Amino acid sequence: MAIWGGNLASGTYLSTGATYDPVTDSWAAITPLDAPASRSGHSAVWTGSDFIVWGGYGAVGTLNNGGRYQVSTQSWLPLADTDAPAARYANAAIWTGARMLVWGGHNNTGILNDGALYDPASDSWSALGLSGAPAARYSAASVLAGDTVLVWGGQGATGALGDGASLALTSGVPSAWSAITTTGAPSARSGHAAAWTGSKLIVWGGMQGGTHLNDGGIYDPTNDTWAAMASTNAPEA
């Protein structure tokens, strides 16, 4: 497990972190040498060998840069800036198996529904130029579901959202968006938890307006159907 960046209650942004090894029950500091600028609200993905961080919000405002931490050498490499997407925070980020996908988020121009792909092998960005993307949002849940990325919920221009979309992947490259049914879906929310079971998406908790939620739903992408989750003995909102 790797933890990096964030901000303190005092408002200070961080550019430090650590990795945790559950086998030895021990922590090891991540080197600050050549680390990206301090930030919070950034995205992070694990490639299987490297830890990539991108975007977020720092002392100078919203960011569209990042870094790649190589665990084997305990060193940072910068990410290319050319063709990187617009600065943003609270965006979705997924490792597709070959590239990092970033989508949505928020910046000083508003809420976004565009994205891009980062290829660490070539240190290059390419735009996600597909039609049919869901409405702009930030703080949405996103998971990799086999050869599909599922995005659901989040905060939109008019408040919390209760819809989403699936993004089909071909050899790790996005190929088409399609809407997720809203029939039987949980109530609109943002900042919720999400997990992929191997066959279904589970979403739970989050907020709607100023209300904390302690319910959720189970989505079956094969049949494009939702099922309610039991509420008995569920944790507090």
TrEMBL record:
Pfam families: Kelch_1 (PF01344), Kelch_KLHDC2_KLHL20_DRC7 (PF24681). Keywords: Kelch repeat, Repeat. SUPFAM superfamilies: Kelch motif. PANTHER family: ACYL-COA-BINDING DOMAIN-CONTAINING PROTEIN 5, FIBRONECTIN TYPE-III DOMAIN-CONTAINING PROTEIN. This is Galactose oxidase. The keyword Repeat applies. It comes from marine metagenome.
